[in-house]
Amino acid sequence: MEIWDVLDENGNKTGKTILRGEELKESEYHLEAHLWVINSMGDFLIQKRSKNLKNAPGIWAITGGCITQGEDSITGLKREVKEELGLDIDENKLSFHIRHKRKNALADIYILYDDVNIDVLVLQKEEVEEVKWVSLNQLKNMLSEGTFFKYNNDYLELIFNALKNFKGNND
């Protein structure tokens, strides 16, 4: 059972908590953290969500999740990445990109530039079926095909704008 802190639109804790799955009011939010891992070739590490998940089963996405009561986004992100991929991330290597407001969630989006060896990752099979590296063009094709998670256009624009200065191989 996950308990979430309820936040206001500015990300301040309201003193209230809810159980995952409970409805939030219009002006209430919970915190999420998302990690975009990019290697020295400019490729993205993505994961295929388990077919058994309630939300977006079998769809490719980036790593991340909901932040539980008492956690900040970096602590929660490190926990999620360790649980899902078996990967310990160095928070000093994280670049905080932006906080993106979604319907009832505030998503802290981080970027990690790292040549992660996917062959040594330990996947949490309840959540992740497989991982792979994809180029920016492959990612865009997956978005148009509907095989990559449908993040909204504002969200994707933030990510793609942040990467414009990256000089990797994004064929």
Structural features, described:
With 171 residues, the protein is α+β, with helices and mostly antiparallel strands. It has a domain at 33-95 and 110-162: Nucleoside Triphosphate Pyrophosphohydrolase (Alpha-Beta Complex). It has helices at 73-85, 136-145, 153-162, and strands at residues 3-7, 13-19, 30-38, 44-49, 60-61, 63-66, 94-101, 105-113, 128-134. Strands 3, 4, 5, 6, 7, 8 and 9 form a 7-stranded mixed β-sheet that branches. A two-stranded antiparallel sheet has the order 1-2. Strand 3 and strand 4 form a beta hairpin. The longest helix has 13 residues, at 73-85. The relative contact order is 0.21.
Provide key terms for this protein:
171 residues, alpha+beta, Nucleoside Triphosphate Pyrophosphohydrolase, seven-stranded mixed sheet, two-stranded antiparallel ribbon, 19% helix, disordered C terminus
SSE order: EEEEEEHEEEHH
Q: CATH homologous superfamily of the domain at 33-95 and 110-162?
A: Nucleoside Triphosphate Pyrophosphohydrolase
**Helicity, as a percent range:** 10-25%
**C-alpha Rg (nearest Å):** 16 Å
Mean pLDDT, all residues:
91
From the structure provided, what is the oligomeric state, counting identical versus distinct chains?
Answer: single chain
Low-confidence stretches: 167-171
Large-scale geometry: globular
Q: How far is the N terminus from the C terminus?
A: 43 Å
Number of helices: 3
CATH class of the domain at 33-95 and 110-162, named Alpha Beta
* Main beta-sheet strand count, sense and barrel state: 7 strands, mixed
The chain-level structural class is: alpha+beta
Number of strands: 9
